[in-house]
């Protein structure tokens, strides 16, 4: 994998579980990555399957940017999403899809991320819902989708598998990665978590 961020995640960090919700996904290949058919085993994370090519389409969203260390990233993202939901409700907006997190930067101290929740439509003329929750668009890009089914604490194994796959195929990626949360669990060690990981391509 040629991406500096993914190398940092898979190598130096080893616990990167990159980012909520909602892209309109137009599949550019007929068959997506297969869904897990058995219950996840918390002691053996499901490896990432071969990626499915997708097109991420920009959509209106409410977002909050933050930074957190490796041990706190899941709780930080879930807290950010809760803050966004409260502001969306207060503004009378409607969530349009699953929440997601966009990972913008990784270093030894942690991750810079943007938690996002797509909305049906953003208020005309407004750029923010509060001092911390802004309005904007989800990223648009060609991407590859991979799956993680299992505890967030174990997502490093999935990222290692993704890195190996991209290296093997000679695929170049941008330094931006996304996680879409198909469900949300209270703790990072809950084995029932379902996350789709998007690697944005150059």
Overview of the structural elements:
With 202 residues, the protein is α+β, with helices and mostly antiparallel strands. It has a single domain, classed as Multidrug-efflux Transporter 1 Regulator Bmrr, Chain A, CATH 3.20.80.10. It contains three helices and nine strands. It has helices at residues 4-13, 73-91, 155-169, and strands at residues 24-27, 52-57, 60-68, 100-107, 110-118, 134-137, 141-149, 173-181, 194-201. Strands 1-2-7-9-8-4-5-3-6 form a nine-stranded antiparallel β-sheet. Strand 4 and strand 5 (110-118) form a beta hairpin. The termini are close together. Mean pLDDT is 81; it is low at 1-5 and 7-47.
Query: CATH topology, which one?
Result: Multidrug-efflux Transporter 1 Regulator Bmrr, Chain A
Please state the second-level CATH architecture.
Answer: Alpha-Beta Barrel
Gyration radius, to the nearest Å?
A: 16 Å
Please state how the strands of the largest beta sheet are arranged side by side: 1-2-7-9-8-4-5-3-6
How many H/I helical runs? Answer: 3
Distance between the termini: 12 Å
Poorly predicted runs of 5 or more residues: 1-5, 7-47
Instruction: Please write the CATH class name.
Output: Alpha Beta
Indicate the proportion of strand residues.
25-35%
């Amino acid at each position: 994998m040629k991406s500096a961020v993914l190398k940092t995640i898979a190598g130096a960090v080893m616990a990167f579980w990159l980012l909520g919700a909602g892209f309109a996904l137009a599949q550019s290949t007929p068959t997506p990555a297969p869904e897990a058919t058995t219950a996840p085993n918390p002691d053996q994370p499901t490896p990432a399957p071969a990626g499915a090519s997708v097109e991420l389409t920009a959509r209106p969203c409410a977002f909050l940017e933050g930074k957190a260390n490796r041990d706190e990233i899941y709780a930080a993202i879930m807290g950010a999403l809760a803050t966004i939901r409260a502001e969306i409700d207060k503004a009378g907006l409607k969530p349009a899809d699953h929440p997601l997190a966009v990972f913008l930067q990784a270093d030894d101290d942690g991750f810079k991320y943007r938690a996002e929740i797509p909305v049906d439509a953003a208020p005309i003329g407004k750029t923010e819902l509060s001092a911390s929750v802004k309005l904007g668009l989800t990223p648009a890009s060609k991407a590859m989708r991979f799956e993680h089914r299992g505890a967030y604490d174990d997502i490093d194994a999935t990222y290692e598998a993704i890195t190996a796959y991209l290296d093997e195929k000679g695929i170049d990626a941008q330094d931006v990665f996304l996680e879409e949360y198909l469900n949300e669990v209270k703790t990072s060690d809950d084995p029932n978590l379902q996350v789709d990981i998007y690697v944005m391509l150059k």
